[in-house]
Design goal:
The complex is a heterotetramer. Chain A is an alpha+beta fold. Chain A has one domain: 3-Layer(aba) Sandwich (Glutaredoxin). Helices cover 42% and strands 14% of the residues of chain A. In chain A, a hairpin with a 6-residue loop joins strand 3 and strand 4. In chain A, helix 3 packs across helix 4. In chain C, a hairpin with a 4-residue loop joins strand 3 and strand 4. In chain C, helix 8 crosses helix 10. Chain D is of the alpha/beta class. Chain D folds into five domains: 103 residues, 3-Layer(aba) Sandwich (Glutaredoxin); 209 residues, Rossmann fold, CATH 3.40.50.11540; 84 residues, Ubiquitin-like (UB roll) (Roll); 90 residues, Up-down Bundle (de novo design (two linked rop proteins)), CATH 1.20.1440.230; 56 residues, Alpha-Beta Plaits (2-Layer Sandwich), CATH 3.30.70.20. Chain D has a five-stranded mixed sheet, with helices on both faces. In chain D, strands 2-1-3-4 form a four-stranded mixed sheet, covered by helices on one side. In chain D, strand 11 and strand 12 form a beta hairpin. In chain D, helix 7 runs antiparallel to helix 8. Chain D is globular and about 85 Å long. Classes of the chains: A alpha+beta, B alpha+beta, C alpha/beta, D alpha/beta. Chains in contact: A-D, B-C, B-D, C-D. At the B-D interface, helix 2, helix 4, helix 5 and helix 6 of B face strand 9, strand 11, strand 15 and helix 18 of D. Strand 1 of chain B pairs parallel with strand 23 of chain C, so a sheet runs across the interface.
């Protein structure tokens, strides 16, 4: 290991680990972040939820949007799968149904970036796992 | 003609000498040296202290004064399974004393003593920092948390067959 | 000098910076009681652990009381030394100390001389409200010193003397909390420790936690035994201190009264260790010259410097700490033992009694002499050359039992033949004295010329280590002097390192020499007392008509009639000894 | 390096380790391997999460699922369900003690909600054995800033302006302390970190050292730069093997990365750090005693002045701060003194870590802003009193502190307010007591501790505390008199006034504060010979209620001294002469027939 002698050296190490650490830092402070949950019960996976999940993770990262994408169990909307729940900071969560890659792209660009509503919202008062 | 005779095995003597050398015969390192020797021998008998004093060129009385000042150091050999009952405040308010009494009763020894077969020795210590598990008992390296008086017999029986 | 302005009990004063509150108060005659504090000004020895918490005073602006013995005055400090809060605190703390102290003042060896007892008296303690468990320990009776740790109040004075001053490292604070006490390693007996029995711990102990082995009962029995002939020798330093035990000013010489008192006590003969001191000079001085001559002639088998050997604590010290140097000290026995050997052989023969019938008693300023008298090599058929050795303090106790008023006693003279002495013997009692006595004789023997002046000012004083060069008619003799074993250690380490510049070194274990011995009346931390004793020693020297050992007619007679000449074969047998290595021994134990 | 989608954080604090967290890590890794998830999931052993009551704790990121009471065998389920199938393992989730509902996200756990983490910023977040993770969290940036952009005087000025005070107990302003040490002349000076945490029931320093050792190392180097020292020493309890291990690793890594050693960041500042071990002496928390101990002596305190800042280790100027104090330094340098000073109260700035323990639902390590009330700590963070018992007292400040009551619950926590209430901040132990605790016995418990730990140097502490404990013992045995209370009061006052060091001067606090706040209990013990908490064996008697006794013989069989007589189906009777009051019969009886008077 070469010795650290400058600010750049410090920054280099920080950058290398940034991703990992930011994962933890974000988790420490989830209120300030966009939280996305992808319904990934068996039926969801069959309906392509896994691709959506990967797409969201990759794209958010590429587009530099700080967000936490997690998987969650069956949301209770099997008719509308794959489903994605998006919670913007300080707002109530919104669930989108029949999400495709294109739809996901739209959700990122319109809803997450600009707060514009996108079609496909399931207006139902569902229950999150927290309320069970 | 000498007034004190110290009996030690050759390898023990060598270990003590090596340890003192490792710390550069620095009297300021006395406590670190004693730690290392107690780790090795399990306790600090007078012979060990005499040799340390001799090597560091400090009075034996000083070494003894240090050994008897710190509760971590002991001149009594511990049992094969040293039992330590945490008597920190958190454990105390969650009934550590009852646990201690139970161990004393089961083993029929007092605090600081060993059983006649040298299998167990009983000691108290201050907080081990596992207050969430209070009351805590340590046997050797193993920690038992949330111990109730009724558990004591069972815990001891784990060591019955050794 | 930088000064600060302070106020003590509404009195304003200016004191030098770094003056303690205790010192400042004493400057204006305000007494603050102390217990653990002890300061021997002349020796730069100060014990101030601030542990007893008796000397507490109130400093305005401080939340708690502060110990006056260590707290230095600062500018504008306002101090109160005797408010009800302070009085209550002192009394309560003293009650606490008393509550952990055996209540046996009536039969305590320190009864009437105990600092704790006086303090209780001073503070008017009439009840001990706080009672409970007392910390008790095993009692330790060695050959010279008794440790009764139950009476230890943790003032730490003995620890300071044993470690810092004497560097013997026998005593240390051990254990923790309520059970802490000052003790040797493993709380073993002193006999199993590197103790030299110098007795400096005894000299400073405020209570009876450390006392000498009391041999007065044994002595009374011997005196009462009609079958025994009991002779006594008194060491040079006893006659200048004994008076203190009877309220006399320090430095009062009481030789004549002491002799009278001893006679009244029932001794058959009252002799003088000074006589044996003169004899020591003959032997040691001759040995010095022999070694010196050989050395100057290029004999490589000869070691220099030569070290004096009349101090038994010093002998113990090098035997236990410097086993590689045991062939350096003079082989001459100490005066006590020379006296014993001459008494049991020469004098017993004169009386025509077997040596067992003669009881030799010594009065010494020393507790190590008790041990020395019991050494194996100083016995013949298990009969010791010196049977009983008592301290100045023990003698005072005995005199108090038999003599109504010591102060008004008439003076009498020592008996002959072993009571005649010179000023050279007298100065054995102080640091620098032995070597001065030796120089007086060696000079004349070596140069065959009379001394131009008898007093060697350059060898005198109280400095820990002193050096002087004495001109032996062209031969420059480098002389070193050390008192206090810590200082002796420094000179010995120089010798070990091959850096010693000396031809001869005098060493005495106790600060000031025998006048500051462990068997002397307690100085209670006043080093001016030791100074006064030293003055008296030199006065005694000047008072005597003969001041060189080789001029003592009874010494000449002894050689003519009995020994032949110094270092003769008989001298070797009776007056010289050998030393033993006494370091801890490590035994390898293999299975 | 792959980009992990999941991090599984496993608490590696001593509390969780002693309940098999190492095994959990091992099992998780095995499961991950078995499912070929090595590049997808990373398991990190972190420092203490603080919530020790619930240990061992496992957190899954990014969704912040908080699993408690995890067992090694749960690893399979965590991987299979949570990671692979994306379903939380509900039975392991923390349940709110009030609603009994599972809480998914640790942020929503009350225990954490009121906390503000500065000192513990990295504990439970980073892998303490990996310096790069510390650096990634802006570690060693403060040291860089000090060495390259600030003069030592400016560093001291920042610390002074921040208002940071010593977290070891007395609360001396840290900046002023540094200033004195900086002003002491001499080329050789020392920075000492006091990690001899000895309060029974306190483990905050250990948690920092275990969870974020570099924060202390960096701060010590900054202190060294500020005061002109190039040597640092950490005096740590030998009873903390894991903290020692992590410190050793951290020092080694810092040396390898050139962040300790010669010419740090290419400047001419050099700094090294050595470890010194304590050996079980509470008094060594006092800085003069600590220094004597580091020099290989008995840890006896000496009178101050001279202060260590002037004459300390080896007689050289020495600055001693405790672990928590040091852990505050880097954030202050990076975020500025104004930021720090904006947290807390007028006189007490920043946060304080407390070890919350005793009869409380959420035992653990908490960090809260100064000025928070005891009520918030006990009822919101601590989740209230265990088993719905009634709150009686909270003991703060360790054995030197005092017992506070209901009436103090709304006092904001600051150095001064705690002292005014008869207790002290101390190093941050907080023990909650309920109606089952006898306050006279509690006072005696603390006194016994002080008696055990007194160094023995000064008479008031050596003998006085012993007498205090004996009088308390007499009272708990029913032999006390009202005069004893007067004796206690006087002795407390005198010990405080005359003892040599901080340990002795504060040792009567538990007695004084209980006398003050629980006077009635003392009087009951003395006059009525009663212990309302039924703790004092000599004052209680066990009886069997003939109404309820069914004669089942269970108690008689269990009684260890055969003090219970009675035939089957007949009412049993306890022989009071034989009874040792062990309480077994009470615990055994299923019919509520045993009662205490």
């Amino acid at each position: 290991m070469a010795k650290i002698t400058s600010l750049d050296d410090l920054r280099k190490i920080k950058k290398n680990l940034e991703e990992q650490i930011s994962l933890r830092e974000k988790a420490e402070n989830p209120e300030s972040l966009v939280q996305i949950k992808v319904g990934m019960a068996t039926s969801g996976i069959a309906a392509g939820a896994k691709e959506i999940f990967t797409f969201l993770v990759d794209e958010l990262e590429k587009r530099n949007i700080p967000a936490i994408v997690t998987q969650t169990g069956d949301m209770g909307y099997s008719y509308a799968e794959p489903t994605v729940e998006v919670k913007l900071p300080g707002q109530e969560p919104v669930v989108f149904g029949w999400v495709t890659k294109e739809k996901a792209d739209e959700i990122i660009e319109k809803y997450i970036r600009n707060g514009e509503l996108v079609e496909g919202i399931i207006p139902q008062n569902y229950k999150t796992i927290d309320d069970k | 003609m000498s007034h004190i005779k110290i009996k030690l095995h050759e390898n023990q003597l060598q270990f003590i000498k090596d340890t003192c050398k490792e710390f550069n015969y620095e009297p300021g390192e006395l406590i670190n040296i004693l730690h290392k020797l107690q780790d090795k021998f399990g306790y600090l008998p007078s012979e060990v202290q005499e040799v340390v004093a001799n090597e560091l060129k400090i009075p034996t009385a000083k070494v003894f004064g240090v050994v008897t000042f710190y509760s971590y150091f002991t001149m009594v050999p511990k049992g094969k399974y040293p039992i330590n009952i945490c008597l920190g405040t958190a454990c105390y308010v969650r009934g550590a004393e009852k646990i201690l009494d139970e161990f004393k009763k089961q083993l029929n020894i007092k605090v600081g003593e060993s059983t006649p077969d040298s299998k167990f020795s009983l000691n108290c210590l201050r907080c081990v920092g596992a207050c969430g598990l209070a009351p805590v008992v340590m046997i050797g390296e193993k920690t038992y948390g949330r111990v109730a008086p009724d558990d004591v017999k069972k815990i001891l029986s784990e060591y019955q067959n050794d | 000098m930088e000064t600060v302005n302070i106020t003590i009990n509404n009195i304003q004063l200016e004191v030098p910076k770094s003056t303690t509150i205790l010192q400042a108060a004493r400057m204006i005659n305000i007494e603050i009681p102390t217990l653990c504090h002890m300061k021997l000004e002349d020796f730069c020895i100060e014990n101030k652990p601030a542990g007893c918490r008796i000397c507490m005073v109130d400093v305005k602006g401080r939340r708690n009381l502060v110990p006056s013995c260590v707290t230095e005055c600062t500018e504008g400090m306002v101090i109160e030394t005797s408010s009800p809060r302070i009085i209550n605190a002192r009394r309560t703390v003293l009650e606490l100390i008393l509550s952990d102290h055996p209540f046996e003042c009536l039969i305590c060896p320190k009864n009437g001389k105990c600092d704790l007892q006086s303090l209780a008296q001073e503070l008017g303690v009439r009840e001990i409200r706080y009672t409970g468990e007392q910390s008790t320990y095993r009692m330790d009776t060695s050959q010279a010193i008794i440790r009764n740790p139950d009476k230890c109040i943790m003032c730490r004075r003995c620890e300071l003397m044993c470690n810092t001053v004497q560097t013997c490292g026998v005593l240390s604070a051990v254990n923790r909390g309520f059970m802490s006490v000052v003790a040797p390693a493993f709380e073993q007996n002193l006999d199993h420790s590197p103790c030299t029995y110098c007795g400096q711990c005894v000299a400073v102990c405020p209570t009876a936690a450390l006392t000498e082995v009391d041999q007065t009962s044994k002595l009374i029995q011997a005196l009462a035994d009609p079958d025994k002939v009991v002779v006594v020798q008194t060491a040079p330093a006893v006659r200048v201190t004994l008076g203190e035990e009877f309220g006399m000013k320090p430095g009062t010489i009481v030789t004549g009264k002491m002799v009278t008192a001893l006679k009244r006590l029932g001794f058959d003969y009252v002799f003088d260790t000074d006589f044996a001191a003169d004899l020591t000079i003959m032997e040691e001085g001759t040995e010095l010259l022999n070694r010196l001559t050989k050395y100057l002639n290029g004999d490589k088998s000869v070691n220099l410097p030569i070290l004096t050997s009349c101090c038994p604590a010093w002998v113990n010290f090098f035997e236990k700490n410097f086993p590689d140097l045991i062939d350096i000290p003079s082989t001459a026995k100490s005066p006590q033992q020379m006296f014993g050997a001459i008494a049991k052989n020469y004098f017993a023969k004169q009386l025509n009694i077997p040596r067992e019938k003669l009881v030799v008693v010594s009065v010494m300023p020393c507790v190590a002499k008790k041990y020395e008298a019991q050494r194996e090599e100083f016995r013949v058929n298990n009969d010791p050359d010196v049977n009983i050795s008592i301290t100045t303090r023990e003698l005072a106790t005995l005199i108090k039992q038999t003599v109504q008023d010591f102060n008004s006693l008439p003076e009498s003279d020592f008996d002959r033949p072993l009571g005649e002495s010179t000023g050279a013997g007298a100065i054995f009692g102080t640091t620098g004295g032995v070597i001065e006595a030796a120089v007086r004789t060696a000079y004349e023997l070596y140069t065959k010329k009379p001394l131009p002046k008898i007093e060697f000012e350059e060898l005198r004083g109280m400095d820990w280590i002193r050096k002087a060069t004495v001109d032996f008619d062209g031969l420059k003799l480098n002389i070193g002097i050390a008192h206090g074993l810590g200082n002796a250690r420094k000179l010995l380490e120089e010798i070990q390192a091959g850096k010693s510049e000396f031809h001869a070194i005098e060493i005495m274990a106790c600060p000031g020499g025998c006048i500051g011995g462990g068997g002397q009346p307690q100085h209670h931390g006043k080093s001016e007392i030791i100074r006064a004793r030293q003055k008296a020693i030199y006065e005694e020297d000047r008072r005597l008509p003969l001041r060189k050992s080789h001029e003592n007619p009874y010494i000449t007679k002894l050689y003519e009639e009995y020994l032949g000449h110094p270092m003769s074969e008989l001298s070797h047998e009776l007056l010289h000894t050998e030393y033993f290595q006494k370091q801890p021994e490590i035994i390898i134990e293999n299975d | 390096m792959g980009t992990y989608k999941y991090h599984i954080l496993v608490c590696g604090g001593t509390g969780c380790k002693s309940s098999q967290s190492t095994q959990i890590v091992q099992n998780l890794n095995e499961e991950i391997k078995a499912n070929n998830l090595e590049n997808f999931v990373k398991v990190v052993t972190t420092g203490c999460f603080g919530f020790c009551e619930r240990g061992p704790i496992v957190k899954v990121l990014p969704d912040n699922s908080f699993y408690n009471y995890v067992k090694p065998e749960d690893a399979t389920e965590i991987i299979n369900e949570h990671i692979i199938k994306g379903r939380r393992v509900e039975r392991l989730l923390f349940r709110d003690p009030v609603t009994n509902k599972p809480v998914t996200d640790s942020k929503h756990i009350n225990f954490y909600q009121k906390q503000l983490r500065i000192v513990l910023r990295n504990c439970g977040v980073i892998d303490p054995e990996n310096i790069e993770e510390y650096i990634a969290r802006d570690g060693y940036l403060a040291l860089y800033k000090c060495l390259n952009e600030l003069t030592p005087t400016e560093v001291i000025d920042i610390i002074k302006r921040s208002g940071l005070r010593g977290r070891g107990g007395a609360g001396f302003p840290t900046g002023v302390k540094w200033e004195i040490a900086a002003a002491s002349p001499g080329p050789e000076k020392y920075v000492v970190c006091n990690a001899d945490e000895g309060d029974p029931g306190a483990f905050m320093d250990r948690s920092v050292l275990e969870g974020d050792p570099h924060s202390v190392l960096e701060a010590m180097a900054i202190c060294g730069y500020a005061i002109g020292a190039s040597h640092g020493l950490i005096y740590i309890r030998a009873e903390y093997p894991m903290a020692i291990k992590r410190l050793k690793i951290a020092i080694k890594q810092a040396e390898e990365y050139g962040l300790l050693g010669k010419n740090i960041f290419g400047t001419d500042f050099s700094f090294d750090i050595e470890l010194r071990y304590g050996a079980g002496a509470f008094v060594c928390g006092e800085e003069t005693a600590l220094i004597h101990s580091m020099e290989g002596n008995r840890g006896e305190p000496t009178v101050k002045p001279p202060y260590p800042a002037v004459s300390g280790y080896k007689g050289k100027p020495t600055n001693v701060n405790n672990v928590e104090t040091f852990a505050n330094i880097s954030p202050i340098i990076i975020k500025g003194p104004e930021w720090f000073a904006s947290i807390g109260t007028e006189k007490s700035k920043g946060t304080k870590v407390f070890a919350l323990a005793g009869k409380i639902n959420n035992v653990g390590l908490i960090e809260v802003p100064m000025g928070i009330t005891l009520r918030e700590i006990i009822y919101e963070i601590g989740g209230g009193i265990k088993n719905d018992k009634k709150f009686k007292a909270i003991q703060t400040g360790g054995p030197s502190g005092g017992c506070l009551t209901e009436k103090h619950l709304d006092t904001p926590i600051e150095y001064e307010t705690l002292v005014a209430a008869g207790s002290m901040m101390g190093s941050g132990g907080m023990i909650v007591m309920d109606e089952d605790d006898c306050m006279v016995s509690v006072a005696k418990f603390y006194l016994d501790f002080t008696v055990e730990e007194s160094c023995g140097k000064c008479a008031p502490c050596r003998i006085g505390n012993k007498r205090l404990s004996e009088i308390l013992d007499k009272i708990t045995k029913g032999n006390g008199t009202m005069e004893d209370i007067e004796l206690l009061k006087n002795l407390c006052m005198v010990i405080k006034d005359t003892a040599l060091c901080g340990l002795g001067q504060t040792s009567p606090n538990p007695v004084q504060s209980t006398l003050e706040n629980f006077w009635d209990e003392y009087v009951e013990h003395i006059v009525d010979k009663k212990c309302r908490a039924n703790k004092c064996k000599d004052l209680i008697h066990y009886y069997i209620d003939p109404e309820n006794c069914t004669g089942c013989m269970a108690c008689a069989r269990k009684c260890p001294v055969n003090a219970i007589a009675g035939e089957r189906k007949q009412v049993h009777v306890i022989n009071q002469d034989l009874c040792t009051k062990c309480g077994t019969c009470l615990e055994t009886c299923k019919f509520n027939a045993v009662y205490i008077i």
